[in-house]
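hey
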């Protein structure tokens, strides 16, 4: 009877996949092989197609070669379902006392989480306040430096303005002295011309007198 059922399901698989060779094992056989390996202590991470193939052939009556790619595809679909069903089966064994212990543990775990979150938040706020104070002190220091530099610049500007004023005064005095010197030079030139004129006039007068004295009677 069991062999007949297996043959019927294999024929059904062939009808579903007429273009390719159907697997030579049933889904039930694959599930039994996977569960047997899991019960033997094989983890889901270590569960591989070669291990399942070996289990199918040695303990579940499957003969012939097994397509590794097809087997891995079926395993990928079946493993989450098996895991979910096994977990649901475990949950059926949970008693009321277990539920109370779980609720208490959840409450304590939740409290621990809230304490951790509150501690982290407190540290964050404290660190934020410290950073704010440090930034404020840094800004105040920069402002003081800026004010000192501005005062220094203002003092230098005042000194430069005073020097420029003195330079203007010196320029005015130099201009006045140059103008006075120019006038003196002009006066000297005028006096030289007057002297030369007088000298020429004097020489002319002497020449005229000499000429009168030597004339015959």
């Amino acid at each position: 009877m069991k062999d007949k059922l297996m043959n019927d399901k294999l024929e059904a698989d062939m009808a579903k996949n007429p273009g390719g060779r159907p697997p030579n094992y049933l889904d039930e056989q694959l599930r039994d092989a996977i569960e047997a390996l899991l019960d033997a202590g094989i983890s889901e991470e270590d569960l591989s197609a070669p291990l399942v193939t070996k289990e199918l052939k040695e303990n579940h009556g499957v003969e012939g070669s097994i397509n590794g790619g097809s087997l891995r595809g079926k395993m990928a679909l079946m493993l989450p379902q098996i895991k979910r069903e096994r977990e649901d089966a475990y949950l059926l064994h949970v008693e009321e006392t277990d539920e109370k212990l779980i609720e208490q543990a959840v409450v304590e775990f939740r409290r621990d989480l809230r304490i951790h979150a509150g501690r982290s938040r407190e540290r964050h706020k404290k660190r934020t306040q410290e950073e704010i104070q440090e930034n404020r002190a840094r800004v105040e220091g920069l402002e003081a430096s800026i004010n000192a530099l501005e005062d220094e610049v203002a003092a230098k500007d005042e000194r430069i303005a005073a020097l420029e004023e003195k330079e203007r005064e010196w320029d005015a005095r130099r201009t006045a002295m140059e103008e006075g010197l120019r006038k003196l030079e002009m006066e000297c030139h005028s006096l030289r011309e007057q002297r030369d004129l007088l000298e020429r006039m004097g020489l002319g007068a002497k020449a005229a007198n000499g000429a009168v004295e030597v004339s015959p009677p």
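The mean pLDDT is 84. Residues 96-213 form the longest helix (118 residues).
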